[in-house]
Structure formats: C-alpha cells, structure tokens
Amino acid sequence: MHSIHRSTTPKDLKGSWRTPQALFDYLNKIYNFNLDAYASGSNALCVNYITAEDNAHLVDWREFTNGDPVVAFCNPEYVQPNIKLCLEAARREARRGGTVVVVIPNQPAKYWETLVVGQANHITITLGRISFIDPVSGDPIQGNPGGSAIITYAPRAPRTRRVATGTSYVSVYSMMSDA
C-alpha cells in the first residue's frame, strides 16, 4: 500500500487520525449515523464501529448495527488500495439498503469513474482543507492539501451524473453554528 500523502505519522498510528467533531456533527445531523465503519476504539465517532481487525472491506455491516438499517460514516485511512476498497464496500452496503457517507481526499483517480461518478447519490467537494485530529497530540493538523470529497451512497435514490457541489470547509463550521 502506498500513502496518498508523504505522512510522517508512525505506521502504527496512521489509522488513528480522527475526523473533526464539528464536521462529523454536521453530517450526523443530516444522516443520524449508527455506525462508524472505519474506526478504532480511540477514534470512533459512533457507539457501533468496525475496526481494522473486523475488516469493513469484507464483513456485512448490518452485523454491527443490532439489526437496524445501516447508516454509516466512513473516514478510511488515506492509503491505497484502502480508499478504493472502502468505496466498493460503501456501494455494497447501499445495495443492501444502507446509507453510507465517505470522506476521502479530493484526488480523483481512475476508480472515480467506476466507483463514484454514476454510482454515488451525492458528491460534495470541500474547497478548503479539513484539519484532521492528530492521534498523538489531539491537535487539528492541516495535512490534506487537496481538500476532501464527501461522497454519499444510498439505496433507491437518483445517482449522480458527473455533478458535484462545492462547499467551503469553513462554511461547514458556520452551518454548524447557525443550526
């Protein structure tokens, strides 16, 4: 696997970065998540979560939601092929009736054509950097130079046709304060 960015994070902590609480809260207000599908005990944002050892790429996510329909938040480790496998798993869970929101770097690649465009229900491109939370210091760090994409897969809803909306990451915070 290769990293999306030249990270200096020690290998054993690479999967421990956490999504900023304000971003998660904003999305959670829209979707009401019941599962964090790519998490650990130290960075999970939902009571129910799937760890690397559980392998969200392969397991049936419904096993982790106590029989409730899956409404999952995903912020996978930013290495390949992890992102591609996460998008494939998100599509699989949407076909099973779940709703899945995935936060990934805004770095379109070949798999976007088959796994995002024409498959996702909604794509939002953030116009600013998301400051993910450092697993050691607990401080927000601006290490994602290209911005992020927030991709939603849902059952039986219209699919995108090369349409994306853009929003400033700063506006996500202002939307939170306006709510």
Uncertain runs: 1-5, 169-179
Please give the count of helices. Answer: 4
Task: Output the strand order for the largest sheet.
Answer: 2-3-5-9-6-10
- Helix-strand makeup class: alpha/beta
For the record, the count of structural domains works out to: 1
Please indicate the percent range of residues in DSSP E strands (runs of 2 or more): 15-25%
Explain the overall architecture.
By secondary structure, this protein is an alpha/beta fold. The protein has a single domain, classed as 3-Layer(aba) Sandwich (Rossmann fold), CATH 3.40.50. Helix content is 23%, strand content 20%. The chain contains four helices and ten strands; from the N terminus they run E-H-E-E-E-H-E-H-E-E-E-E-E-H. Strands 2-3-5-9-6-10 form a six-stranded mixed beta sheet, sandwiched between helices. A two-stranded antiparallel sheet has the order 1-4. The protein has a two-stranded antiparallel sheet with strand order 7-8. Helix 1 packs across helix 4. It is globular and about 35 Å long. The model is unreliable at 1-5 and 169-179 (pLDDT under 50).
Question: How is this structure best summarized?
Answer:
The protein is an alpha/beta fold. Helices cover 23% and strands 20% of the residues.
Tags for this model:
six-stranded mixed β-sheet; 179 residues; two-stranded antiparallel ribbon; alpha/beta; Rossmann fold; disordered N terminus
